[in-house]
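cron nightly-structures :: item 1 of 1
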Amino acid sequence: MQKIYLAGPEVFLPNALEVGNAHKLLCTKYGYEGLFPLDNTIEGSNLKEIATAIRLANQAMIHECDIVIANLSPFRGPEPDSGTVWEVGFAQGLGKHVLAYSTDLRPLKEKTQSILNLGDTNCDASGMAIEDFGLTHNLMFSHSVVASSFEECFKYLK
């Protein structure tokens, strides 16, 4: 049975285990085994050790999986969770099949202008240009965004 690593900021939700288990059940429904980051057993005597253990455990899960499904929805701003974006790049570098979804599929420029209340300007508050290729996400990973929900990604696996 192929394994799917479930990447995304769901680990920060107050009901993270419940959401992770629901995603794992959907994986099972479609004939896959879901690997959720909070399935890892993490030990450490201080925050730095715990952070390192989390990173290494998640990397091991990505090595173990065949597929990554990533939640690239806006997180604390117009961009996705940076840890999830890193996992997408890591998985792609390993040659894994990566699919992503986002609850906001507006073009990146429109999404950024709206979420940051920038009006029609082409720059952010720091004067940095807003990427404008008409894509939903940064050009380096927008090709992975195929759906607006986790479950919708499964139709791209068969």
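cron nightly-structures :: done
Residues 29 and 82 are 29 Å apart (CA to CA).
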